[in-house]
Amino acid sequence: xxxxxxxxxxxxxxxxxxxxxAIAIAKKGIDVIITYNSKKDEAxxxxxxxxxLGQKAASLQLNVAESGTFDAFFExxxxxxxxxxxxxxxxxxxxxxxxxxxxxxxxxxxxxxxxLTNIQFKGPFFLTQKxxxxxxxxxxxxxxxTGLARFSFPGYAAYASxxxxxxxxxxxxxxxxxxxxxxxxxxxxxxxxxxxxxGVVRDNEQLNKNLAAATALGRVGLPDDIGGVxxxxxxxxxxxxxxxRIEASGGMML
Length: 254
Description:
By secondary structure, the protein is α/β, with parallel strands linked by helices. The protein has helices at residues 16-27, 40-52, 70-84, 110-131, 157-176, 200-203, 205-213, 224-233; strands at 7-10, 31-36, 57-61, 90-95, 135-144, 183-189, 245-248. α1 crosses α8 and α4 packs parallel to α5.
């Protein structure tokens, strides 16, 4: 019950970087399942756009902070794989869904810490664990990190720490899943103009200029700078790329 077309599951694929990743993946001839947290209309729009590219797509609701829902979520994944894609497994998992909380180390509350842990680390950890039952051998995992795991800006201690944990986890995934020929890699964006974190990089002109000045290529990033990197990791061209951290930041803080 398998077909030749590969399928990618992109969490948080209804907007921002996730939307760009989903569309870039579809342009590589790969079908896509995206998840959304609350805005079904945005997800439906992305599904329609992917369909216009000639690829199949579907959207499912998922809150990555609620790991207790993951078993039920993958039952929905299995149902949509059968109904929409006429198969029983997918090939690539892109752990993109997330939020940013800007607070100093000293000001970070336990509630903020726990929220970031659930969304940025615990969620991807157990979502990937459960996804393996529905993934084909020879596929891949792409975990999304941040340039802030390499360099530091005040206000992101908790967020960046979770991403550092994801980067370590990725190496263990690559090692332990190698027997199934499943690759695991990290893509770490730098500062990007999206609505992430309230759109601060996009909307704060002075911050935008400061970040551009700290970047070798002289500007902050755009969503189009990231999606293609993730899409590449879902292709046969990336078959020998494993356990790597690929930073797509234009050369920030060198």
